[in-house]
Amino acid sequence: MSFLNSSQQTKISHDALVVAQRAFVGLDSDEQDALNSDAEAWRDRHQEEFAPKIYNFGKTPAYNVKITMKESNNSYSLDEIFESMKKKQDSRTLTINPGGFLHNSAISLPGLAFIKEIIDKNNGYEFYIATLITYRDAFGFPHETQACYLVGKEGIMKNSADITMSHFQHCNTHNCSDDDCETQKN
Q1: CA 91, CA 111: separation in Å to the nearest integer?
Q2: How far apart are CA 39 and CA 42, in angstroms?
Q3: How far apart are CA 61 and CA 93, in angstroms?
Q4: pLDDT at 4 exceeding the cut of 60
Q5: pTM
Q6: Dihedral (C-alpha) 76, 78, 83, 87: value to the nearest 10 degrees?
Q7: By CB count within 10 A, which of 44, 93, 132, 138 is most buried?
Q8: Which residues, listed in sequence order, are joined to residue 93 by a DSSP beta bridge?
Q9: What percent of the chain has pLDDT over 70?
Q10: Of residues 155 and 53, which shows the higher confidence score?
């Protein structure tokens, strides 16, 4: 019978503790709250605002949290979009306590009529909302969360109301965290 030496046992215990106690930052699953229509902005610029709640689902604080959001079209690959976001991350950092959330990060989107017009003119056009969250856990380890939504002709055909999350679907890739993001690359 083989026994692990004490340094191996200590490492296994430490790794289990880190996984069980670390911060896990991601977007709230209640996506219907993610799009807010600002009546004045809608009249002036025909825009909507994507403002997801970003939660720490873990048991310890998330430090140095950086949130980057971008809207784009499919003239760029998702890998290119996320790589460009990593290069242009905001220098502002935040802390999210366990069970806490942020609801002050937002990106303005074109109105539904504009998106519909572009999709109708350009067969195969898709519109993306990409979110990149980087942070450090209480143990000092870096983490990354990616979230991606898209709207294409199928989503627009669902209804013709103001743009809502019902128009969007999750992208096939880039809805991941940490090492899973590397395996999801296009």
Answers
A1: 29
A2: 5
A3: 13
A4: yes
A5: 0.78
A6: 70
A7: 132
A8: none
A9: 72
A10: 53
Beta bridge partners of 94: 65
The residue with tokens 């991350």 is: 89
From the list 90, 99, 50, 100, the residue with the least C-alpha distance to 66 is: 90
Provide the pLDDT for residue 157: 65
DSSP H stretches of helix in the chain: 6-21, 39-45, 78-87, 112-121, 153-158, 179-183
Q: Is the dihedral of CA 87, 118, 74, 134 positive or negative?
A: positive
Higher-pLDDT residue of 164, 78: 78
| Entry field: residues in the chain | 186
CB of 162 closer than 8 Å to CB of 125: no
Determine the distance from the C-alpha atom of residue 107 to the mean position of all C-alpha atoms in its chain, rounded to a whole number: 12
Helices (H), 22-77: 39-45
Predicted pLDDT of residue 119: 74
User: What is the C-alpha to C-alpha distance for residues 145 and 67, in angstroms, rounded to an integer?
Assistant: 10
